Automatic annotation (TrEMBL):
Domain of life: Bacteria
Gene3D superfamilies referenced in this protein's UniProt entry, alphabetically: Amidase signature (AS) domain
GO molecular-function term, one example from the UniProt record: catalytic activity
Gene, per the UniProt record: gatA,QRSL1
Record-linked PROSITE patterns: AMIDASES
A matching Pfam family: Amidase
Organism field: Phaeobacter gallaeciensis
Domain Amidase: 26-432
Entry protein name: Amidase
InterPro entries, A to Z: Amidase, Amidase_CS, Amidase_dom, AS_sf
């Protein structure tokens, strides 16, 4: 049974479908592993034992009657603590929301439950999802699977840890500037950022509604594809036989994305490009100078909306917040309405230039993150180190959010070094298919 804790969600689902795995036994295996884990309370905010077992029993009955609702019917997954769950605390990593208990599930949780997944519980996160580092002194900071003293990546930090430490078959997180892809990269997982507006945000605690997205942190591209479907209430794409990379064209983005790479990250990226070339892919260097203009707008675009949504709640009890997160929110109060509108107009122009520059490529490639996970102790004691690390951490992933794209982060042979694939808006299925091929080439 311990092997179950390492299997992909898709393989667990196939085992259930073949009658080789009982959903109740599988769920008990995960619950027992969670309860026995020494880092449980740093990963999960709450474990929903009763709900999980009830859903597992229903899945087992459906399996016996050959009425399974999806390929992942009966598979246990975790949920970031900003997805409303009926009767279970949902505090988004912040004491500003302490004691908040929703009376109904978020739409995506309801969809996934209706398709048969088992909810194991809620996972820790960066405060109000406003940091890519995953450090949360207010609640708990989940561990990084590769370095006990390093930040885990955020804001979906607990979601990543739950999968990386074998305490969930898949984790569901959110991504506003990189919050699925960064913890996935730093914990050797696959992370899918969906296109803004594709997946429902109903019942999801917001940060920046124009950029907020929902996505899975998983052990394989296939798992990510299946979870994409379940979040929408469908079965998802079939990725079992990925196409050849022969003749595929990838852009190797040089603008912004290659600046200030740590040596390990640079080496991992070069190795990945070499493997793709060996598999028959064409790699084309790409410069998009206008991208820097878009990056320069991100401060006003993110902080203005975030502070606009949270200003009244924050200023009623600012002492409840981690100082670094509070400062980042308050930066949004420095910008005017006309400046914000002008920034969005300029961003739309940059997006049109981007679309023209990347036409004809199967995906645009970048390192998922330019740096390795930074030291947690120094993050808490050195303000300048924290600010620089947070901005660098989210830099490459933020390209996907600013350009309105879907994106995928894949693990590489180097721990905590991910390869990011940027796709076209609303083309997740195509990105996942090419991502499955890239995944196979990187193995």
């Amino acid at each position: 049974m311990q092997d179950w804790l390492k299997m992909t969600a898709a393989d667990l689902g196939r085992g259930i479908g073949a009658g080789e795995i009982d959903p109740v036994a599988l769920t008990k295996c995960y619950l027992e592993a969670i309860d026995a884990h020494p880092l449980r309370d740093r990963i999960y905010t709450e474990v929903t034992h009763e709900r999980a077992l009830a859903e597992a029993e229903a899945a087992a009955e459906r399996a016996r009657m050959d009425l399974r609702r999806s390929p992942l019917d009966g598979v246990p997954i975790s949920w970031k603590d900003l997805f409303d769950s009926a009767g279970t605390g949902t505090e988004a990593g912040s004491d500003l929301l302490k004691g908040r208990v929703p009376d109904q599930d978020a739409r995506v949780l309801a969809n996934a439950t209706a398709m048969g997944t088992v909810c194991l519980g809620k996972t820790h996160m960066s405060e109000l999802a406003f940091s890519g580092l995953g450090l949360n002194p207010v609640k708990e900071t989940p561990p990084c699977v590769n370095d006990e003293g390093a930040a885990p990546g955020g804001s979906s930090s607990g979601a990543a840890a739950s999968v990386a430490f074998g305490l969930a078959a898949c984790g569901i997180g959110s991504d506003t500037g990189g919050s699925v892809r960064i913890p996935s990269a730093w914990n050797n997982l696959v992370g899918l950022k969906t296109t803004a507006g594709r997946i429902s945000l109903e019942g999801v605690v917001p940060l920046c509604l124009k950029f907020d997205t929902v996505g899975p942190l998983a052990r394989s591209v296939e798992d990510a594809g299946l979870m994409l479907g379940l979040l929408e209430g469908t079965k998802g794409p079939d990725l079992r036989n990925p196409p050849s990379l022969q003749g595929r064209r990838f852009a190797d983005l040089r603008t912004v994305a290659r600046d200030d790479l740590e040596p390990e990250v640079a080496a991992a990226h070069v190795e990945c490009l070499g493997k793709l070339k060996a598999a028959g892919a064409e790699i084309v260097p790409l410069e998009v100078p206008e991208l820097q203009d878009a990056m320069d707008l991100s401060g006003i675009l993110y902080t203005t909306e975030a502070y606009g949504l949270w200003k009244d709640v924050i200023e009623a009890s600012p002492d409840l917040m981690f100082a670094e997160i509070l400062e980042r929110f308050r930066a949004g109060g420095q910008h005017s309405g006309p400046d914000y509108v002008a920034a969005w107009a300029k961003l739309e122009q940059c997006r049109m230039v981007w679309d023209q520059a990347v036409a004809g490529f199967d995906a645009v490639l970048t390192p998922s993150c330019p740096i390795l996970p930074p030291n947690m102790a120094q993050l808490q004691s050195d303000h300048d180190y924290y600010v620089r690390a947070n901005l660098l951490t989210l830099r490459n992933t933020r390209i996907g959010n600013l350009m309105g794209l879907c994106a995928l982060s894949l693990p590489t042979s180097k721990p905590s070094c991910g390869l990011q694939l940027l796709g076209q808006p609303d083309c997740e299925e195509a990105l996942l298919r090419i991502g499955a091929s890239v995944e196979a080439a990187l193995c």
